[in-house]
Structure formats: structure tokens, C-alpha cells
Fold each of these.
Amino acid sequence: MLFAIHALDRSGALPTRLANYDAHKAFLSDTSRFGVKIVMSGPLVSDDGQTMIGSLFLIEAPGRSEVEAFNRADPFAAAGIWDKVTITGFLRRQG
């Protein structure tokens, strides 16, 4: 099953995001211990097209519990970068 993770940063989190960026990228390089696969992911940006304001993931997983465990273990979550995280099932129609 596919799941979308939509995570919006808390106000003023950009310096903390940048300080934890390498740890976050390393974490994403191997998701096998959570039983999930990243289909695609990347930062959400403000209208200037550059300033990172959150994260978006499309995850393939057996169920929600695996996605929740994966999300909780992300260094960005541990650093308190995200203000609001929504995990929603997703049905692929195109692409």
C-alpha cells in the first residue's frame, strides 16, 4: 500500500533543518529496517521555490504502523523540526 507523509516545519525551523540535513539523508538511504520503501521524497518549499518549509514522502509499506515507525525515527522528527505531520493512504491512478 502507498502512503503520503506531508510534514510542515515549525516556524523558525530552517536552521535546525539544515543542521540535521546530513543525518536525515543518511537515515533515508536505508529504510529496510522499517519494512518501507521510499517511492519519492523531497522538501516542500515556499513560494520563492527555494526556502524549505517541510517534507513530502510517498512510501510503499505493508501498513500504517510501519510508516508511523519510520516517520518517528527520522532525525528531523527527533530534532522537532516538523510542526504538523499527516500520514494518509494513497491510491495511485497515474504515473
Amino acid sequence: MTVYVDDAVHLWRGRRWAHLMADTLDELHAMAQQLDIPRRAFQNKTSGAHYDVPAELRERAIELGATAISRHRDRALVRSVIARAKAQGRGEHP
């Protein structure tokens, strides 16, 4: 099982943001807890189960074992991870 963090590509409020996703919700929430991200920041709407993380936390997530994925180089993997995140957000088991 794996936790993933994509490129910090989204600019919002003057910061770059990335998405933290995982193969399971338990792994996702555990990594968010290690990063001191509050549970209220969890998102599971149309974009799938994830946390938004600022670029500096992206680097910390990688240090803690998250797999860095690139929306530019790892397109098939990113699509697969996002599909699992969406299934988790709908309460399905990927």
C-alpha cells in the first residue's frame, strides 16, 4: 500500500498546493496526521479522497515515505491513483 503526493501545481492564495492521496483511507489519514494536517481538511467530494498540502509539506510527506508522482511524467499512475481516490470518496473499495 502506498501514499502519494503529486506535483505542487495549483496556485492558491500565493502558495503552490499538491494533493495527498493513498491506496487506502487509513493510510491517507495516518500520513495527514504525521504532517499535522487536521482531519477537517480531508476532502472527498468530486475530486476524490485527498488532502491539499502546501509545497513545503509535500517535501515533508516525501521524507516520511510518500511516493512523489508527476502529473506530467506519470500520467497513467496518476489516473489510477485518482480513480482509487474517487472510489474511496464514494465509499467504494478500490
Amino acid sequence: MVALHAIILMLIQAFVWILLAYCILSMLLGFGILDIRNRFFYSIFNTLAKIVEPVMSPIRNILPNTGGIDFAPMVVLLLIQFLVYPAVNRIFFMLATQSSF
């Protein structure tokens, strides 16, 4: 049970790092430091986008339009920090206290 809890927390932490990498790469793309025509950069950016965009697009639909600033990554990080981590810890704590092993 403890191993499953650790694996789930590691997967959430990996998603957080992927989200941060996506944000950094999109900023580098926006400032013109990296070029999307570079095949290596495009493949990395496309892979990260396929992982992150299904989570961020519903949040973008809820948030108001703020011009050129995207607050969806910040909202996702805050939701993970204040909702997902405590929920996972509480669920596994409840499972651990109710098991009869």
C-alpha cells in the first residue's frame, strides 16, 4: 500500500515537472530563442503538449481572457498542490487505518 502511494505521488510530481518544462519551452518559443522548425525541439514540445494540454484546456475555457498571459499552468499547479496532494494522502491514510493487516 505504501509503495502504491509513493508511485502515485511520483507520477504527480513527474507531471508537475513536465508542466514546468512545457511552460519554459513555450516561453522560449514565444521570445524567439528556440525555433519550432527545429525537428528535435518540435518533437519535445509536441510530446509535452500532448501530455499537458488535456489538463490545461478545460481550465483555459473557464478562465477569463487576459490577453497574452496564460494563467492555466499556475492554476493547475495550485490545484495539484492544494487539492490533489491532500486528497491522495487522505485516501491512503483512510485505507491504511481501515485495513486489518
Amino acid sequence: MKVLNRIRTLAAIAAGLGALSAAGAWAADLKVGFITSMSGPVSSLGIPYDKGMKAAVAYKSEVAGRKVQVIQLDDASDPSTAARNARKLIEEDKVDVIIGTAGAPGSLAIAGVARETKTPLISIANADLAGEEGAWMVTLPQPAPLMMGAMVEKMKQAGVKTVAYIGYSDAWGDLVYDALMKSAPTAGIKVVSNERYARSDSSVAGQVLKIVALRPDAVITGASGTPGALPYLALTERGYKGKIYGMHSLINPDFIRVGGPSVEGLLAPTGPVVVAEQLPDNNPMKKIAMDFRAAYQKANGAAPTDTFSAYSFDAWLIYLDAAQRALASKAEPGTPQFRLALRDAIVSTKELVGTHSVYNFKPTDRYGSDDRSRVVVKLEKGQWKLVP
């Protein structure tokens, strides 16, 4: 009988320990899936995104006492790989959110998986899906129309009457061109071309020959990163002397390195973080932008010189804020209930101060930026200078 009672006691203790273990496992760490392009033609953007995520984790790595685990995958600049990565992270690694990726086509591919699996996506590339198709995503880079408005205003001030366009033959190229076509005519500026090229192309000589023949007052591009320098190099080779403009997708040290003298004097819109030290002290983003720089220096051993890494950092801030509120719903990470609560928290974000913007999201709008998220900069001797 004593032996039997001892066995029962040990069994009860084991059951209790098992219950405690299960409870500990249930109070799971939070898991974030991060996809970027560490290789391929978009890697000049993807690598800064990676460094920005390292800075974000160095800045803060827990929510409500729970550690946040980041599981990172390389999509090799391929949208199909990006989609497969997203599915693996969601179905096998059980992440509750995806942050990614470096190009708009890749982010749009991830968005399809996010919608199907009901998993929130914080897009760090400029990707937009209207209505229910984009119900599980938000987008951090400032929308093309907002930034294009600043460029068209500068063109008008400079007396530009005709502008030629050359951009990527993908979703980003389309977004920029559509924004130009909506804002230029109202400013009395005629768009005289719509030339396109692939991100992997090594030459745009043919497209630029057509542009130069039109003799436009200015040229603006819808490109990004290192391949974004190609049109400016070709314009210089053809002796073009007009004004040159770009978009916020060009703010990258590799673009400056490859473009060299051909991109000197370029005007572009960007987020305030790029010129944080040049901002007035009353700018709401100055403090967090400087905090980002300190975290970046700590994580990467150097100061940031691009705009893209700060989008990863802002995505992290938005996630941390939303996760805090989602946990208050009592839903546990790793469950459909938590992913829904997290999505609802993300799309209801209000006045969250980031490095690029003060974010306000709505369930029906992918973008969370307003006029506070843009400044105009000019490239002077390899440095971006704030334009009043």
C-alpha cells in the first residue's frame, strides 16, 4: 500500500510539473517573420532593411515581459520566393506577423499569402492593394502621390513645363507614373514620355535616347537603389543638361556611389530621418530619428546612410505598439485569435511617432503617412541637404 501511495504521489507531482510546463509553453514568446532581399538585384535595398531590423532589435526586444523572436529569410529578390518564405514562416514557424520585403512585387506576393492565412503584413516596400485584397497589410513607405506632390511643386517653382518619365516596368514604376500623371497637369506641366526598364537591366541607352530627343525641361524616375542610377548615367553620357528629379526610393549610398557626378544636384522627397540633424528641434520625429541612429550604430558599428533601414525600424515600432494592445485581448501568440487582434491593433494605430512619419492607420487605407512624413533634399557633393 505504501508503495502504491508513493507511486500515486509521484504521478501527481509529475502531472503538476507537466501542467506548469504546458502553461509556460502557452505563454509563448512572440514571433516575427522578417523577409528581405539579401541577394539579387534588390539587395542594395534589402541589405539596409536587414541592418535596420538589427537596429530595431537592439533598441527593444520584448513586449509586456515577453521576448520577441525574429526569424529571417532571404527572398533573393524574387517575388515567388518571397511568397514561399511567407508561407513557411506562417505555417511552419508559427509567426504572428510578417515584416517585408525589399521590393514592391515581393511585398505584393507576400500580401496574397497574408490574406489567405489571415496573418498581418507590415510592408516595408511601397505596395498597395485596395479593399479586401489588402485588408491584412499596411504599408510604411510614403505613398507615391504624397511624395510626387512635393516634386511637382519644386518643378513648378523652377519653371519646368515638360518632364520625361523613366521607371521600372513593375508595380513601383506604375505607382510613380500614375502619381506623376495625376499631379503634373494641374501644375501646368506636360509629361512627354513613359519609358520603362527592368530592375535587372544593365543599360537604358535606348530609352534615354528617346527622352533626350524630346528635349524635356526635366527628367524624373520611378526606380530605386543601385539600378536607379542607370537613367542618370545614361543622361549624362548623352549630354543632357536639364533638371533631374527622383523619388524617396533612391535615398541609398549605393545609388550615390554608382551615380557619382551624374546624380549631383538631384532633388528628391524623403522621410525626415535622412536629415535628422538638420531638422528643427520641434519636429516630432527628430528625437526618435536620433534614437534610431544610436541603435543602428550599436547594432552595425557604423552610422546609417540610407532611408530604407529606418522603415524596418518603424515597422518594429508599429509591431511593438500593436502587440502590446493585442496581448491585452488575452489571446495568446501563435493562435488565429492573436493574429486577428494584432491586425486590428495595427490598423487602428494612432499618432505613433516613427523616424519617417507620425503613423495613423485606418482599416480601409494601406498608408499611414501625412505631410509630416516628407521633406525635400538635394544631393550636394555626395550628401543629402535639406531644402527649405
